[in-house]
Structures are given as C-alpha cells and as structure tokens.
C-alpha cells in the first residue's frame, strides 16, 4: 500500500502478484489490485479483476455491490441488474438491494422491466414498513409509465390501486414532515395522473 501511495503502480503490482503466488486465496490482496486499477482510472481492468475475483469469492457482497456500481456508472444497466440479482439472492431482506435493482430496471425501461421494477419497489416498501419515499415514488412512476406504454392495448388493471396507496402514503408523509412541499408533491402526482 505504501508503493501505491507513492504512485509506484508497477512495483505495487509486482508485490501483489508475488503475494498471490504465495496465497492465491488472499482476498485482501485481490481487492487491493482492484482498488489500484480503479485508482489509476483503468475501469476495464477493474471490471475484469472483479469478475475474476467473484468467480472464486461468489459470496462477497461488497464485491458484487462494487461491480454493480461500476456498471451503473458506465450505463451498463443489464450487467448491473445481474449484480443486484445476485445481491438479492444472497441477502433477500436487505431493502437497499431491492430498491437499487428496481431503479436499474426502471432505467432500462420496457413493459416487462417496468412491471418487475414495480414489484421490487413494492417489496422495498414492505421491507421498510412503508417508510421508503423513493420506493413509493417508484411505484407511482412505474405505474404511470406502464399505463403510457399500454395505452389502448391492455385494459386490465395496471396496479392503480397500489399506485393510489403509494400516493396516499406520500401525501401523509409530506403533511407530517414537509407541509410546505405538499403542494409541489400534489402537482407532481397530478402530472403522473395519480390520485390518492
């Protein structure tokens, strides 16, 4: 790490490679190599190293999250979605993973992804006891986008009841925490054609 701090990247790389020859399962050294690649701005190498690392250490939640965040920063949303799926499988009660997975699916768009995103926003709401505003907004946004995509094609219920419940919860929360912003919320929900 001293060599890294001095900017002697090639010497640090040699030291890490030597340590990995002695113990190829040293997670700390693998992570330092990844951090070094990121510090040098070599994101492609960081992605390769993270993927290689995760082949061996599949249960490392931090590595999956790191890889997902890199993919999101590069707008590689399908790859990021896969990472968040892995995180949800390993920690199904962590609402943050449900929320970020829903955000990624919403960003990808399309009818199927929006439906799935809405389900994961709903699971975030359930896991947080209805206290996550971002998930409440996500339900409203997904339902609105789905109804726009399916205009004239599909007359089945598009989750308007869930959307209405989310809008009511948002209004209640804003009345308690930020009454001066309630008018702004109401107009935003109207623009989404949401009524509580």
TrEMBL record:
Membrane topology: Peripheral membrane protein
Start and end residues of each EMC2 TPR-like domain: 1-104
TPR repeat ranges, renumbered to this chain: 61-94
Subcellular location: Endoplasmic reticulum membrane
Keyword presence, Endoplasmic reticulum: yes
Example of a GO cellular component annotation carried by this entry: EMC complex
Organism superkingdom: Eukaryota
Cross-referenced InterPro entries: EMC2-like, TPR-like_helical_dom_sf, TPR_EMC2, TPR_rpt
Repeat in keyword set: yes
Keywords assigned by UniProt, alphabetized: Endoplasmic reticulum, Membrane, Repeat, TPR repeat
Primary subcellular site in the record, as a coarse category: endoplasmic reticulum
Assembly mode: Component of the ER membrane protein complex (EMC).
Family indicated by similarity: Belongs to the EMC2 family.
Role description: Part of the endoplasmic reticulum membrane protein complex (EMC) that enables the energy-independent insertion into endoplasmic reticulum membranes of newly synthesized membrane proteins.
Name used for this protein in its record: ER membrane protein complex subunit 2
Organism: Punica granatum
């Amino acid at each position: 790490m001293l060599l890294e701090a001095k900017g002697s990247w090639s010497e640090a790389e040699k030291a890490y490679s030597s340590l990995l020859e002695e113990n190829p399962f040293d997670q700390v050294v693998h992570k330092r190599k990844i951090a070094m690649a990121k510090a040098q701005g070599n994101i492609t190498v960081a992605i390769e190293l993270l993927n290689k690392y995760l082949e061996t250490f599949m249960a490392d939640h931090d590595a999956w999250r790191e890889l997902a965040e890199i993919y999101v920063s590069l707008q590689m949303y399908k790859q990021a979605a896969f990472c968040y799926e892995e995180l949800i499988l390993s920690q199904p009660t962590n609402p943050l993973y449900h929320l970020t997975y829903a955000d990624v699916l919403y960003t990808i768009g399309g009818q199927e992804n929006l439906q799935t995103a809405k389900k994961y926003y709903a699971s975030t709401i359930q896991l947080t006891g209805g206290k996550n505003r971002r998930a409440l907004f996500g339900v409203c946004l997904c339902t609105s986008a789905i109804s726009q995509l399916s205009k004239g094609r599909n007359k089945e219920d598009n989750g308007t009841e869930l959307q209405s419940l989310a809008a009511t919860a948002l209004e209640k929360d804003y009345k308690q925490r930020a009454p001066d912003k309630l008018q702004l919320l109401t107009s935003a929900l109207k623009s989404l054609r949401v009524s509580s």
